[in-house]
Structures are given as C-alpha cells and as structure tokens.
Amino acid sequence: MALTSIRLLFLLFFAASVSAAPVRTEHVEAELVAAGIAAVPGQPLAVALRLKMIPGWHTYWRNPGDSGEPTKIEWKLPPGYSAGGILWPAPQRLPAAHLMNYGYENEVLLPVDIAVPAGAAGTATLTAHAKWLVCSEERCVPEDARFMLDLPVGISAPSKWSDAIARVRAALPVKVDPSWLFTATRTRDGVDLEVKPPVGATLAKLAYFPFDEGRIHNAGAQAFDGTRLSIPRAQQPAGAFNRVSGLLVGGPRPIEIDVPVTGGASDSAVPGLALALAFAFLGGLILNLMPCVLPVLSIKVLGFIEGKHVGANAGANAAALRTHGALYALGVLASFWLLAGALIVLKSLGHEVGWGFQLQSPVFVGFLAVLFLVLALNLSGVFEFGSFLPSSVASVRPKNAHADAFFTGVLAVAIASPCTAPFMGAALGYALSEDAVDAVGVFTALGAGMAAPYVLLALRPGWLRWVPKPGAWMVRFKQVLAIPLYATVIWLAWVFALQVAPQEEVRAEVKTAGAWEPYAEARIASLGAEGRPVFVDFTAAWCVTCQVNKQLVLGQADIEQAFRDRGVTLMRADWTRRDPEITRALAALGRNGVPVYVLYPPRGEARLLPELLTRGAILAALEGL
User: Fold this and answer.
1) Which of 207, 333, 430, 566 lies in disulfide reach of 276, CB 3.0 to 4.6 Å?
2) Claim: this prediction has a pTM higher than 0.85
3) Whole-number mean pLDDT of the chain?
4) Which CATH homologous superfamily contains domain 505-623?
5) Which CATH number applies to 2-172: 1.10.540.10, 2.60.40.1250, 3.30.230.10, 2.30.40.10?
6) Is the pLDDT of residue 17 over 60?
C-alpha cells in the first residue's frame, strides 16, 4: 500500500511535464501533449498535437478547401501500441480572395487515441513526426517537427492538458442521430439538402463542410431558410456530386452526415460515367496522332505492307491478321489496366498521384530514353532488331508474331505516357475521383480508343490498297520517322537531368523563364485580393503536349503582350517531379494530369482552357476579364 502511494505521488509530481518539448517555428508553436500522466495497460491513451499559430496565420482541416494541405502525423510506437487517425475538430471558413479554405486560426488541439496493449509495462516512448502547412493571405510555409513523449506505464491521473483535451473531444463532430431526417435533391446549380432536426429542436443557421475535395463551390453562398440548405456545386467538379458527405455545423454539436443525392435536374456540368467513357475513347483515339505514338503505329503499318505478319496473300491470312489486331489491342488494354491498378492502389495508400506519375521517376525516364534510342537506331538502319542479340533470343520475335503483337501494344502505351490528348483530362479526372470500377471502365475506354485504328486496319486490310507497294520509299520513310525519335531522346535526357538536379535549381529555372513565376496557391489568393488575374500553366518537362503548347502558343510575342495588357500574373506549376500541392490543385480542378491551363479572374470561378492550347482560346479568355 505504501509503495503504491509513493508511486502515485511520484506520478503526480511529474504530471505537469507530460508533454514533449514544444517546437517553435517562425509561425507556429507545436507540442505533443497527453491527457494522462501515464499509459494504462489495456486502456486508450488520449494525446493531442497542439498547434498555436501567430496572428494572421492558419493551418488546415482534413479537407483544406480550395487550397492548402491537411496536417499529418507519422507515428513510431512501442510493439503492440497503435495510433488512430486524427480526430478533427470542426473547422472554420477561411476566405482568401475568390477562394475559400477550411482550417484553424489561433490555437487548435488535434486529438489522437493511442491503443495501449493489455500487457504493457515499463515506459512507453511515443515518437511522432508532424507535418503541417501554415498560411497567411500572402504566402504558405510547409513546416514539420519531431516529438518524443515518454510516459510510465501503470496508474494514471489527469495531466495539466486533461481538461483542454476533454473540451476539444466534447465538441468533436458525432455521427448523425437517427432522429434527424435528411433528403438531398439535385438542382441546376448544386444540391438542396432538406433538414428535419429532432422534435423540439430548431436551427437558426447551418453550414456544410464536405469531406471530399472538388465537389462543391467552396466560396459560394450556402443559403439556409430553416429547413433547406442550398449547396452550390463546383464549376469544375472533380467527379459527380452524388453524396452530401461531410459535416453540418450550426446545431448544438457538429454532426457527420452521408446522404445520397437523388432526382432533380440533370447535373449537366458533371461528366458522368457515360460522358467520361466517351471522352476517354476519343482521347485514346487522338492519342495515336501524338508525336510519341505515331512513329510506333507507323512501324506496325509498314509491317502490314511488307507482309511480315500475314504473308503475301492477306486474304488467305485474314484470320491471322484479326488475331494479330486483337493481341495488339489486348496489349494496349492490359497496359492501361496496369496503370489504372497502380493509380488506384497508390491513391488508396494516401499518395498524391496522377496521369504520367511514372514519368516523375528518373529511372523510368532513363528507360524511355534508351528505348527511344533503340527504336531510332533501328529505323535509321543501324541494325535490325535481333542483329546484336544472341540467336536464341533473336529468334523469338519472328517465331512468335502473337507475342510481338501483344508487346507492341504494351510499347505503344509506354511511349504514349508523356502525352495528353484532348478529352483525356476531364475523363481521367473523373475516373480517379470515383470508385475503382468506374476508374477501370474509363481506362478501358481510353485503351479501346487508342487500339481502335490498328484493329480496324487489321479487320480491313483492303484499306492498304491506297498505300504504295513496298519499295525503296519505305527505307526513306523509316529514316524520316527516326528524326522525331532522336529529338525525343535528347528531350528525355534533358528531363532526366532536371529530375536529378536539386529542387532549388528547378525553381531557379522557372524564375528565370521570362515573366513566369513558380506556382503558389497563397500567391493566387493574394493577387486576387488585389484585383489582379492569374494564369497558371500546369506543366511538366516530360509532357510532350505541354512543350508543343509552350512553343507554339504561350511563347509567342502577341500572347505575351496580351497577358501584359490585361495585367495578368503568369505562374508555372512544374509537375516534372512529384508535388502533392500541384496534384491536389489539379484534383480540385477535376483534372489528373498535365497540361492544364487555368485563368483565375479576380472574382468568380476559375476558367479552364483546352489541353491543345490555341491563341484564340487564350485571347477569348482574356476578353472575358
């Protein structure tokens, strides 16, 4: 009994020190604190990340709104211990010019429950690496800190943080009670949410904070008349607004809801699945005309002409030709399915990725450079495939035309990845904001569109009668096809050099690119507050379409002058290497790859321009200012 009392007194003596040493940055005081002075075996331990911002600065909620990044915590715990996710307090609306963000000002405690195993003993050392983005109206600064909290295991008592953590937990959003009734109906401009609170309860005001980004117009007014809350849809939605899933704030306590949207007017601005499939098919079809893919498709057509796969009498080998076309299509589809699966898995693990994510890897870029060089040398007549390989390997390709057809489809997709065709952006943005089934469907349609021309040619070999018979012209034609491939090798080597360079060098290159400045979300907001429009070029060094648009349109003197005449600030969002901030900005625009071109007016909605940029499209958008 005496030993227990002494131990309890010892714990109480150190109760005031139950927090990791505070970390002070230029903008935030951060601290990891615990509600109890010890960890009790078999009972959850309540801890919290405390962030105290200086005046005028804020951090972000789980859905940051139009810009920003949620706070994250990475844990290293003793064996048998496990940490739950952050229990997010209800946020506040943080307007920034024409944008609206969700987050916290002044001070916030972000609670986390730590599961303590029943057999725990000794001392529990909790190590946390917290990352947050802190912003003002002018700029944003990513910050982080590491904390180590040592707690004895045994009898516990409240720490000095116990009451503060308890107050935060008492105000946390709760699951909606069955006594509440909701009906969500689609309207022309968004969704009307009918709200029936429990008997005897009245609501004077109500606000909706969505869990998912890109569904609603965050800065738009949410009108509430006592029974109906009107929620405006985003002008460029990242997927269909099919569920009202988020927080309702304004009652006695914030509540979590998840209500399906039914009936009402057609949501014409949202690319539903049928439209996304059509866009994906058209995008895949046009992808064949991109400089990445056209040489490979041309090589296969030359193979048809030479009769390499079907013999001199195409009619007698019609079945073989159809099989060849089907296997090429299967190779294309299998590659797109593989990409879809990789994207879905990576996103489910919390990674910020999009179309072309593999090209953000220097290893893959180096592989493509070697592949293009081999293709170019082959077309130039330096060697024929197999001439420098062991005979056992070289004989595989001519002996197995079926495998050759399949892997040509795989090759076509691999070298198509630097390109984005018209219609692809909206389709991919929709696919990766919906469930896995829809995503796979969109990628299947994209592959079907890309494979369609070659398959049609395999089914209709008679169309080749318009092509001259095999002869010397084919050698010269191959040599011409090699020229863009050599240019691509040089370009990929430049991309590789950029990717392995320090980030500061890449940013320095953007800063020296004439009137363009590096992308910064907070900067867009501050310029909007000053009444100045902003044009953002979401680009990447490995994106062929981006480079073509840059040379043929954005770099032209009359376009540059038009921007200056309108007082437009030019920003370049460089996605050459993985950048979560740019990925989230693309998702908020309903896009999942580059190029993307956006004009942000001082007031009103951002305006998206086409992927294949034209001078007319830019001038028309500027006239709209």
Assistant:
1) 430
2) no
3) 81
4) Glutaredoxin (3.40.30.10)
5) 2.60.40.1250
6) no
